[in-house]
Design goal:
Layout lengths: L10 E3 L9 H9 L5 E8 L8 H8 L5 E9 L3 H11 L5 E6 L3 H12 L9 H15 L4 E4 L9 H12 L7 E5 L3 E2 L2 E2 L2 H18 L3 H7 L9 E4 L14 H12 L5 E5 L19 H19 L6 H28 L6 H24 L10 H7 L3 H16 L1
Length: 406
């Protein structure tokens, strides 16, 4: 991927393999003296027992420019929280584990419920939201990065490349989105991005016409990557979805709130692999089926908010156009994989396209039945306006959990 193509919508920062190893880290250490850099790790307890996270921590332990690491821990009981504290204790940086299931954090959640500011169902979006709130409450971080805890091919250079565009005070970027090729076990991966999002955006443009928002999303080489870095000044007004539409939702917020020149995408890895979700053809409430529905709804809602009128007829046309577009792209993916010595199961790929096409229509039905649905978690500015003490009390709750179970 070492080229220098620019699409004209968002700046693309490539890895041209011309920098010496560690050069970016040396610059980041200089920036970090006056611009603190933080990292957010949303984690399930089960990921502590997986193959990826121990290596991620080994790599992070060598990163000297990080001011604080905020770990959001989901689906853990008291003993598992205690274990997580010890597990992450190998990190030499200042770090904190937010036990989202603790009685104290549940009390914070109850206060939000009482205010009508429910942060939604448990999931990555809710986890990230609480971590962002904690980061805002600390008031000492200029740049916050987010990445997943299941990256099997993690190297600390990924983080350096991700945060550099927003940490460099001479750059104009407020948001940086990571991209990479999804390759693992000699296979071309990334089915949802390749087989759903890319052909869906092509189909939408054919069915509803040109939209600047569609051109913006199509400019991203990997719109579903879970790797972001942001200047923290934008965080209090950030509205993020609580469902699988998190990544599209953050990009949509950047589109809504920021000038185009404030957003960039940056190549962070030559080879990226992480945990794979099952397709779940028989159950649309789990796996890639649930993910595909949530992603489609996120895109439809944003287009509707910008004035696009949807109907059952449009969604039927969209399904047919998507299906043809996806099959055309599949031919390109097959050629690309073969030329690079990768395997690609065309039968399985086509089997994936079929439920994705159905889920586009299902997402359309859900949207038409409840077009006013707002699955976004309230912004932290709104929370602060409703309860000025809540963020302070959340920090105190996290500290009390640490003291009790340390």
């Amino acid at each position: 991927m070492a080229d220098f193509h620019q699409n004209g919508n968002v700046a693309t920062l490539h890895n041209l393999r011309t920098n010496a190893p560690g050069a970016l880290e040396a610059e980041l250490a200089s920036f970090a003296q006056s611009r603190h850099i933080g990292l957010i790790l949303p984690s399930l307890f089960s990921e502590l027992e997986g193959p990826a996270l121990p290596n991620i921590l080994d790599e992070l332990a060598q990163v000297g420019y990080l001011h604080r690491i905020v770990i959001g821990l989901d689906r853990a009981d008291a003993e598992q929280y205690r274990h997580a504290r010890a597990f992450f204790g190998r990190l030499p940086q200042q770090h904190v584990v937010i036990w989202n299931d603790s009685p104290r954090m549940k009390q914070i959640g109850s206060r939000l419920d009482a205010l009508g500011l429910n942060p939604g169902e448990r999931g990555k979006g809710r986890n990230v939201w609480f971590c962002l709130g904690y980061t805002i409450a600390c008031q000492d971080t200029a740049v916050a990065a987010i990445h997943d805890c299941d990256i099997l091919t993690y190297e600390r250079e990924m983080l350096a490349r991700l945060v550099y565009p927003v940490a460099n005070p001479n750059f104009p970027y407020q948001v940086a989105k990571g991209y990479y090729p999804r390759v693992g076990e000699n296979r071309m991966n990334g089915r949802v991005s390749r087989l759903l999002v890319s052909p869906l955006l092509i189909a939408l443009k054919r069915v509803i016409g040109d939209r600047d928002y569609l051109d913006y999303l199509r400019a991203f080489r990997y719109p579903l990557s879970g790797e972001f870095a942001m200047r923290t000044g934008i965080l209090p007004d950030l509205r993020i979805p609580s469902d699988w539409g998190l990544e599209i939702g953050v990009l949509s917020e950047a589109w809504r709130n920021l000038a185009p020149k404030s957003v960039c995408q940056v190549e962070i890895s030559d080879n990226y692999d992480h945990k794979h979700q099952p397709l779940s053809e028989e159950d649309a409430s789990t796996g890639l089926s649930r993910m595909s529905v949530d992603i489609c709804k996120a895109i439809f809602r944003k287009l509707a908010a910008d004035g696009t009128v949807f109907s059952e007829e449009i969604f039927r046309s969209l399904k047919a156009t998507y299906y043809r577009s996806a099959l055309d792209l599949l031919e390109s993916y097959y050629s690309d994989a073969r030329m690079n010595g990768l395997t690609i199961d065309r039968h399985l790929e086509e089997r994936s396209i079929e439920p994705f096409a159905q889920n586009i229509v299902q997402a359309g039905h859900v949207f038409l039945e409840n077009p006013a649905e707002t699955p976004f978690i309230p912004t932290w500015n709104r929370v602060h306006a409703a309860d000025p003490d809540l963020m302070r009390d959340m920090r105190a709750a996290v500290a009390a959990d640490e003291a009790e179970f340390g």
